[in-house]
Structures are given as structure tokens and as C-alpha cells.
């Protein structure tokens, strides 16, 4: 196990550094370097003879008395299983993924005859009352889909090919197995959430539509009337139902968002200045327009970085708090753990930390105690902010259900000719959005996750469930009040969530850190809580 770690370390670091360079520059040189690094990493774990040895250990893992060694075998088996298959096919996948990353990073939409970035598109949809301009901006936000769709289909075909070589029906089911998620269990969770959110979401959508009809003087709400191009958030829409809605962005317009992020994590006793110093937060051409956190390798001291495209406002305040939630997790994994266990327990557990922290951006008590917003400015705003957060979670769950069900169908048959119809049928049923008449574009391919982070979105949902349980546990048993101002909460997170890394099955981590097995109850309670 130690020798495998020694071989993997430089290859893993090279992949992370190449990905960072591509995301920050969008250059052809960086794209080529990412392909090379990815192929060299895969070479380590694609050796079929080595895999047979690891698979034999995995088959007899219950006989390994040392729990740490047993868990390393489980994690290493997953790394090998993910890299098995025809090498030409794997190399082609690396090339296509790098090409897709460059495409999403470099693409700029056109509105009014000029190129605009995602921040500008978001600003138009957030503020403009011009229906024609809004529609043009919304359509522009989907324009990358036409270029990306052939890449996504080919990637899905090739991923399926590798999955079938290993005896899986398709890449979707193979991915769930590698993530240690049982498909039936996930379907049960998602179905329960769909049922639990159906009635409150319909009522919320009715209220939003009434407000948007008044705002835009229309009797028909179309997708471009929503502020978010995928309707995965409704915070700006909710303002249309609130009459003279509070200017939440105003809380941050003249503020240094990085400084507020530092202040937030300082209150928990979690140092992030070193992460901030290595991060890239400013907009510029060629740079990936989204946000993410990454750790460059697993050697200590950990090199953790955040990429963002910050503008003053609630959106980017939430995003920074979210990404630095990933960062403190990555930074504080116990470096004395064996190499392959120096990571988060699961994608869903790191998302839980990020989501819990991101939600503070509109928490009235955080705005007062940490962000220093004067009480006079918060007067009369508190209940509005709480309702806005509740509504946003409802909208996000319905959007995540679209992604979950669409990807499952995509990998069942990437060549089906009705993917555009499938997408809009799901959007109509789950998000209650009307398909623009005559629209037949691959809008599904405009979502970057489908191309480069496949079979991932359910982890945001699981993260929400874990975050609800974790915050409830912290504030009920650790801090007896808001967790974000307490160093006791930070210490608890260090000891129960971050430090243990991947030393145990993620379900055990969730139960130990939150005091209960993973469930939907706490999250559903937060959705139904009266404003």
C-alpha cells in the first residue's frame, strides 16, 4: 500500500496542477498538459496484473484485522476499478474531457452583438425589465450547449464502453458503485424528496409566477423571466413577490468578500489565509467562469486553492463561503493518515460542509454578528431572508431531480434522438417551466457538470441532507446556539469530520458526526418550516 502511494503522489499532483492551469488560463498548452498528466495517472492504476492483486485483497478484506489497512484496500480498489479498460478509449476520454473543460472555460456568449461572460448574463437576468433582452440573454446562456452536445454524447458512449468491459450495465451504475452508493437506496431518497417537495414547490412556483407576471407585465411566465438561467435558484425571483423587497446585495456591495470569508472562518478557529493567498478570485478572459476548490496532491502541508470570479453581491458571498467550506475540509485532514485515506470521506460529506457554510450568506444572525450589518438594516428583513433560504432549497431540490433523472437516462442510451425532449419533459414536470415554442436545442449540454463532472449532482442533494443533520447536531449538542460563532464548533468539525478523512465508510462518518444515520427528516423539516 505504501509503495502504491509513493507512485501515485507525483502523478496525482501533476493532474491537479494541470487542471488548475487549464482553469485559470484556458490555453491549448494547458489542455494538452492535462491530457498527458491524466494518461500518466491512469497508467498507474490501469495495470490489469496489479488490479488482479488488489482485487484479491478486496475480496478478502473482511479477513484483514487492521481497520486502517482494510479501508486502504477498499479505497485503492476503487482507484483501480475507475481506471480499468482499453487504454485507447481511456486516452480518448482524457482528450475529450480536457477539450470540454477548455470549451466551457473559453466560451463567451453574444448579446446585442457583443461577447459577454456569465457574470454579465446573470446581471441581465437579475435586473433587466426588457423582455427581448432577457430572452436573448437566456438563449445566449445556453449557446455553449450546441458546441458541447457532440462531446457529451461521445464521452457518454466511451464511458459506457469502459463500464460494460467491467460488467456494468452503463457508466451511471458503475459510477454509483465507485462512489459506494447503492442505486436503490439513492432512488428511494430522491423519490421521497420528490414527493415531499411536490406540494410546497407548486405553491411556491405559483407565488413566484404571480410576482413575475406583475413585474414583467405578462400573462405567461417563460424561463427567461427567472433570474437563474437553469432555475436552480429563486432568490432574485422571490423579490418579485415581496413588493419592496430588501436589497440583499446591498449588504455586500461595498464590502470585501474575501475579508468577510476570513472573518467567518476565524470565528470558528479555522485558518484559511494560506488558502486565500494561493487562490484566484478575479475575473479575466480565458478563465473558467465557475468556481471550485481543489487540493494539489495529498502531501503535507496541503496546497489548497479556490478559483472564483468574484463580484460584490450575495451570490459570490455565498459562493466564497461554500468553496472555502471545501477548503477547510481539505486542509485539515489528518496528515498522519496513510496516503490513500488523506481525503474527505465522500463527495457528499465535503458538499455538506460547503453547503452549510454557503447558506450563512443570508442568515440574519450571521449578517449581524459576523458580517457586521447594522441592526437597523436588518429590521424587518429577517423573516424575508429565512423564507428566501427555504424557498431556494425547495427550488434547488427540484432542479437536482432534473439532473439526477436526466443523467440516468442519458447513460441508458447516449444515442437516443430525443434528449432535447427528455430534458424539457423533466424540466416541465419537476420545475414547472414552460418550454419555449419551437425550441429544439441541446440545452442540457449547457450544464458543465453533465460533460466534466458526470453522475455527481446527487451528491449535492446528499450534502444538503447531511448539512441539515450536522447543523442541527452542532447547535443542539455542541454550541447550544448558532454554530458559526463558536470555536467549539470548529474544534468539533476538526475532530469528527475533517481529521478522520477517509478512514471509514462515509455512512459511518455521517452517523458519527451528526449523531444519526443519513436520512431526509431534518432537511424536509427545514423545507416545511413556516416563514
Automatic annotation (TrEMBL):
It comes from the Bacteria. SUPFAM superfamilies: Metalloproteases ('zincins'), catalytic domain. GO terms for molecular function: metallopeptidase activity; peptidyl-dipeptidase activity. Coiled coil: none annotated. GO terms for cellular component: membrane. The keyword Glycoprotein applies. The keyword Transcription does not apply. Transmembrane segments: none annotated. GO terms for biological process: proteolysis. Keywords: Disulfide bond, Glycoprotein, Signal. This is Uncharacterized protein. It comes from Rubrobacter xylanophilus.
